[in-house]
Amino acid sequence: MSASLWPSIESMPKPPRGMHEMLRDAVGDIEGITNGAIKLHLEASGSPKSAGMVRYNCYLRAVKVKYNHLLFQVTAPVPGPWPATIGTPVRDQLMTDIQNEERLRDAIKSILEEPSTGETVHLMLGL
């Protein structure tokens, strides 16, 4: 039998970080913070407003009662994550023309610091 033609997995190029990974890294720790009571749920779909765009819906999910709350949405082009737009159910376009992960994280941080986000998390913990 001949040897495998596969190169070492470690030597193979890795794909660039995508929006999904950036969002999970930014807010996915809610599960640990709430001892598993709330999880992050990400859903990607085509944007109804324009072709060539994808919308990432970022939900908080109360695990016990299977309740989802839309926390925010990020819209980005299909071939790459930039420029992106982030919005909430209350403010459709909170920040536009996001060009890097640092600005994305700043926008998400401002959403997480809103009083309504804290109220939602406490409500979900009480379900």
Furnish the topology, listing elements before pairings:
Elements: H1 19-27, H2 30-33, E1 38-46, E2 53-62, E3 67-77, E4 84-87, E5 95-98, H3 101-112, H4 115-125
Antiparallel strand pairs: 1-2, 2-3, 3-4, 4-5
Could you list some keywords that capture this structure?
alpha+beta; 5 strands; 28% helix; five-stranded antiparallel β-sheet; 127 residues
Task: Describe it.
This protein is of the alpha+beta class and 127 residues long. Helices cover 28% and strands 30% of the residues. A 5-stranded antiparallel sheet has the order 1-2-3-4-5. A hairpin with a 6-residue loop joins strand 3 (67-77) and strand 4 (84-87). The protein is globular and about 60 Å long. The model has no long low-confidence stretch (mean pLDDT 93).
Number of DSSP strand runs: 5
Oligomer: single chain
Estimate nothing, just give the exact number of structural domains: 1
Please identify the structural class as seen in this structure: alpha+beta
Beta-strand fraction estimate = 25-35%
List low-confidence stretches. none
Largest sheet: 5 strands, antiparallel
Specify the number of helices. Answer: 4
Radius of gyration computed on alpha carbons: 18 Å
Q: Give me the strand/helix succession.
A: HHEEEEEHH
Terminal residue distance: 60 Å
User: In which order are the strands of the major sheet placed?
Assistant: 1-2-3-4-5
Mean pLDDT: 93
Task: Using the alpha-carbon principal axes, give the shape.
Answer: globular
